[in-house]
Each structure stands twice: as C-alpha cells, then as structure tokens.
Amino acid sequence: MKQLFAPLRRRFTTARWRTRLTLWIAATVAGLCVVMFARLADLALALFAQVTAGRGWLTLLLTPALGMLVVFLTRRYFPGSEGSGIPQVIAATRLSAAGKPVGGLISLRIALAKVGLGTLALSGGFSAGREGPSVQVAASLMHAAHRFLPNNRVVRVQDMILAGGAAGIAAAFNTPLAGIAFAVEELGRKLETRTSGILLSTIILCGMISIGVQGDYNYFGRLNAVADSRAIILPVLTLGLLCGLLGGLFSLLLLLPQRYGHHALWRWRAAHPVWFAGICGLVVASLGWATGGLSFGSGYGVTNDIINHGQSIPWYSAPARFMATLATYFSGIPGGIFAPSLAVGAALGGNVAQLFDLGAQPIIALCMAGFLAAVTQSPITSAIIVMEMIDSHGMVISLMAVALIAKAVSSRLGPELYQQLALGYWRRAQQSVPDSTGALTSKRAK
C-alpha cells in the first residue's frame, strides 16, 4: 500500500505543490472572511434600522457616540485600519516591492479591526461600504500567508498583496472579472507572467467561495435595462459629463484633508480626532433624520428598492447621500466609498430619468457606472460592476462609454483618488518605523 501511494505522496509534497496548496488555502480563508464581513455588515444595517425605527431622535445620540468609539479604538489600538483600505493596499504593494515593511498598512491585526470596527460603524448608520475594507482584509490575509510558502522567493510579497486585494473586490461584488480589472487599473497597473497565475487562481477561488456560501446573487439586484443604440447616445454624452463633474467634485472634496492639512479645520481634526468624529456623526445623523433615513447606511437597501421595485425617491436623496458619505469619510472610521458612490449614482439616475425618453432602468445603470468611474477614475472596473447587474448585453458599450467620458471629465478636475491617497500613506511609511505591534511610528518620535 505504501508503494502504491508513494508516487502521489512524492508529487504532492514537492515545493511546487506545497506552494499551490498554501495559496489555495489562503485564498479560501480570504474568501470566507470577506463573506463573513458581508454577513456582519448586513446584520449591522438591519440592527440599526430596527433600533431606530420610529425613533429618529435616537440617531442624533447613537451615530455620534458610535463614531467616537470607533475612532478612539482605531487611533488607540488599531492604527492603519481607518479609511477605505484600498489606498493602504496600493501603498503596501509599492513598499513591499521596495523591500520596506508593510505591517502598518496590512496585517492580521488590521484585518480583524477592519471587520470589527467597520461593522460597528455601520451599526451606527454611517454611510460607508465594505468593499474597500474587504480589499485590505483579503490583502492582509494573503500577505500573512506568504511566510508559509516553502520557498517565499518563488512568489513575491507584492504579488500576494496584489492577488489578495483583487480577490477582495471579486468576493465583495461577486464579480471575478471586476477583480481582475481592478488589479490592473488600481492596484498593480501591470500584470507580469508570474503575477497573472496567482491573481487568476486567487480571484477564481475567492469567487467560488463567495458563490458557494451566498449563492449566485447580484450585488444590488438585477437591472432590466434594455436600450436602443441610437436613443442612448444623447443620455450617454449628457450623463457622462454630469457624472464626471459631480464625481470629480466628490473626489476633490475627499482629498481636502490631504491637500490642505495646514488648514485650521484639519489641524483641529488631527489634534482632536475623537471629537471630530462625533461632529461628523452628528452631521450624518442629522442628514439621515431630515431625509427619513435615505442617507443612512451603505445605500444597499435604498438602491435595491430603486432598481428592483422602481421606487421613486425625492430630489434630495442623492445630495444627502453625497454629503453623508463625505462626513463619514472625514470622521476617520474604517469604511469604503464604493457602495455609497453606486448609491449616489442610482439616486441621481432615478431623479434625472424623466428628462430622457428611455426609461428609468437604463439611466440608473448609466449614472451608477458614470459616477463610480468619476470618483475612482477606474472606468473598466466601474462598468463591469454595473454590467453584472444587467440582463441585456446591449448596454455593455454604453456603460463603457459613459464610464470613460466620466473618467475623462473627472481627471480634468483632479488626480486619481486612490493613487493620491496611497501616495500619502507611502510618504508617511517612508518616514516611520514599525513598533512592536507592527504599527508605524514617526522616526522623530523615536
């Protein structure tokens, strides 16, 4: 019997196969963690809705209090877990390629905090998504798995980080193709032969885990959007320009703390981050209370109602979500902007659909892709994410066109959001050294 299984044992214990098994196990764990994060986020949003139902005044206390608690825990015990998570992964990829430590940007400690504190923030009604944080969580897990490879020089650290980040997007949106596009557009900017195999296998496995646990679901539901190729030309041009201007403005506003850190407001924020988070939480609560809850949470529920049930929404839904997401981001809690950006686009599309003789569904799809592309300046990823929700393939070219136009307009207004934020993290990491917990501490403080 031993002689019968000896060839198999020799084959599967080689360094090549041990490398594959390590990568597959890590990808499986990453996929499960992203799915768990999705489930926790849904529970947090449902809990917030249940607790505050019929008690709108309670949000004026609950949201600021939870925001202050989350930011206190983030700053005190889990530095590096604040914000979206995508800029941190981009910066970590560059730092690891240069042989620099990345423990202050991606680690198991940060991954745990991203899930826990991000869920806690959503239970307070903050306008944040779990997609960007999922990128950082998956990248942290894949980075941690690198040490278990039999020969860690076969697969580079930056390749593991890149594969994990792309897999995070794929599992969060249930769209493997979007994960590949995101890796090319944002995380790596180029794929090498050695990277592509790791990337594809990791994304596919994470996607399989997501589908196996949650089923073949659509992120915001299903858009029954069918549009004539000629009738859609004017909406594509108009909405590409409109979404490009609004998304570019949104991106510029998100960069204010980085670009104007010397301003009194941002200096006060740096000196009193917990109190600042409380003020931002009060802004989020006030907007939600004034709009009847339309701007609370990540926007999944409202957007789902717009897409699947044709629910009409008031004109102030998109501006309220716009401002609530800004306040959420400025607060410093762990949370992303992908889902809120799609929610702004859906609300905007629902409001302007009557201006075009095309039907609401195609206009909503165009605005979702256009606004997200303008904010992130990642047109291919944005178009693919929305494309996955559409029954008709007739809008594929239209979605790509509106995303490219919006990106072109947005790029005239300012730099790429994630790349600019990543540059800030990269510069701070260059001036810091890791302490005993892996967090980055200023060299001057040392």
Major β-sheet profile: 2 strands, antiparallel
> Count of DSSP E strands?
2
- Number of discrete helical segments: 20
Beta-strand proportion? under 5%
Query: In oligomeric terms, what are we looking at?
Result: single chain
Shape: globular
Helix content: over 70%
SSE pattern, N- to C-terminal: HHHHHHHHHHHHHHHHHHHHEE
Low-confidence stretches: 434-440, 442-446
First-last Cα distance? 61 Å
Strand order of the largest sheet: 1-2
Average of the residue pLDDT scores: 85
Structural class: mainly alpha
Radius of gyration: 22 Å
SSE topology sketch:
Layout: H1 2-12, H2 15-52, H3 56-77, H4 86-97, H5 108-122, H6 131-145, H7 157-173, H8 176-187, H9 193-214, H10 233-254, H11 256-259, H12 264-271, H13 273-290, H14 300-309, H15 317-331, H16 338-352, H17 360-376, H18 379-387, H19 396-413, H20 417-430, E1 432-434, E2 440-442
Antiparallel strand pairs: 1-2
Primary descriptors:
446 residues; mainly alpha; two-stranded antiparallel ribbon; 70% helix; globular; disordered C terminus
Question: How would you characterize this protein structure?
Answer:
The chain is mostly helical. The chain is 70% helix and 1% strand. The protein has 20 helices and two strands. The chain has helices at residues 2-12, 15-52, 56-77, 86-97, 108-122, 131-145, 157-173, 176-187, 193-214, 233-254, 256-259, 264-271, 273-290, 300-309, 317-331, 338-352, 360-376, 379-387, 396-413, 417-430; strands at 432-434, 440-442. It has a two-stranded antiparallel ribbon. Helix 3 (56-77) packs antiparallel against helix 13 and helix 4 packs antiparallel against helix 7 (157-173).
